[in-house]
């Protein structure tokens, strides 16, 4: 009887061979755990391990509620400057779709007041948008906006125009600062990005100013298996 290790490696090797040969091009659906169990005569645990490791190696994408798919080339995102994700997606031949999750006015707490350089307790605008490329969610944008900089922010249609595009037009950027870190996603973020709790993510925290007035504080969360952040000087 074959050891479990040899079995899951055999499953991985066959899936990898089909991907490497081009038989399964990017976005091809990969057999589910149940289908692998039936095809290879292995346990569900073995099938799960094979798919999990292929995903961690960047060969497949596991999208909760939809299944596993051959991964496209990992997208490169520049870390220098403030870019419009819709333009980036279109530039590489993809189709962008924005899903507006939240757009409302809130009262800012101490940390947000410091970030936006406004008085504690004043109203701020809050939006959450999930950006999709070819129907795969690739970025969760969680943004707070200073109303003094963009008073009509909440009346915009962010499924037709990204917050970045709108803010660039009404409050041109004068400077920005950002940090990048690896994080574990929160449950609500997993649901919106269709990823698992154990999937690593890259988080960009960014603040921007317009005419030297603090304009936005934003969190940009990217599934680590779908993105690679790069910079050059």
Q: How would you describe the overall organization of this protein?
A:
This protein is α+β, with helices and mostly antiparallel strands and 233 residues long. The protein has 2 domains: 4-70, Orthogonal Bundle (Arc Repressor Mutant, subunit A), CATH 1.10.10; 75-230, Chorismate lyase (3-Layer(aba) Sandwich). It contains 7 helices and 11 strands. A hairpin with a 2-residue loop joins strand 6 and strand 7 (136-145). Helix 1 (4-20) packs across helix 3 (44-56) and helix 2 (33-40) crosses helix 3 (44-56). The model has no long low-confidence stretch (mean pLDDT 87).
Number of structurally distinct domains: 2
Q: Please summarize the sheet with the most strands.
A: 6 strands, antiparallel
Number of helices: 7
| C-alpha-based Rg, rounded | 21 Å
Unreliable residue runs? none
**What proportion strand?**
25-35%
Percent of residues in helices: 25-40%
CATH topology of the largest domain: Chorismate lyase
């Amino acid at each position: 009887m074959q050891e479990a290790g040899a079995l899951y490696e055999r499953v991985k090797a066959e899936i990898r061979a089909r991907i490497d040969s081009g038989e399964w091009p990017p976005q091809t659906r990969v057999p589910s755990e149940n289908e692998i169990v039936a095809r290879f005569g292995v346990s569900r645990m073995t099938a799960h391990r094979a798919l999990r490791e292929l995903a961690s190696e960047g060969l497949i994408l596991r999208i909760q509620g939809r299944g596993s798919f051959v991964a496209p080339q990992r997208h490169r995102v520049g870390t220098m400057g403030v870019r419009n994700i819709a333009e980036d997606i279109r530039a590489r031949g993809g189709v962008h779709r924005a899903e507006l999750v939240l757009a409302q006015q809130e009262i800012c707490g101490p940390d947000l007041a410091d970030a936006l350089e406004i008085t504690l307790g004043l109203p701020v605008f809050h939006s959450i948008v999930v950006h999709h490329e070819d129907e795969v969610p690739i970025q969760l944008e969680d943004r707070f906006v200073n109303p003094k900089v963009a008073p009509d922010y909440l009346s915009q249609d962010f499924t037709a125009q990204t917050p970045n595009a709108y803010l660039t037009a009404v409050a041109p950027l004068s400077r920005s600062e950002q940090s990048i870190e690896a994080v574990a996603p929160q449950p609500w973020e997993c649901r919106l990005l269709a990823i698992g709790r154990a999937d690593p993510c890259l988080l960009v925290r960014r603040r921007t100013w317009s005419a030297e007035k603090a304009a936005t504080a934003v969190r940009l969360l990217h599934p680590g298996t779908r993105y690679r952040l790069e910079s050059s000087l």
